[in-house]
Design goal:
Elements (H helix, E strand, L loop, with lengths): L1 H16 L3 H10 L13 H8 L1 H30 L3
């Protein structure tokens, strides 16, 4: 049971981490991929450098939100069994 919960938590983190907030914001604002803008790095710094502070901070907020969501889901699903590791 414990190993299944650990694998589930890893899977939740992987799936939420594979969602690229910068890609969504770049496509919404420009219609182009984040990889086609500036340095080509699909991250906050590139979006901020090419599209401005507002979109850059939106990417940061989205990345923080998906981290909090992953941690919260795993804590709710497995916290009592796995402890706070």
């Amino acid at each position: 049971m414990e190993i299944t919960l650990r694998i589930l938590c890893l899977l939740v983190g992987y799936l939420l981490g594979s969602f690229l907030t910068a890609e969504c914001i770049a496509r919404r604002l420009t219609g182009r991929s984040a990889r086609d803008l500036g340095s080509g790095n699909p991250g906050m710094a590139n979006i901020m450098a090419t599209l401005g502070k507002g979109p850059g901070f939106a990417v940061l907020a989205g990345d923080v939100a998906k981290t909090v969501l992953a941690c919260g889901l795993c804590w709710l699903l497995a916290g009592p069994v796995l402890g706070h590791t």
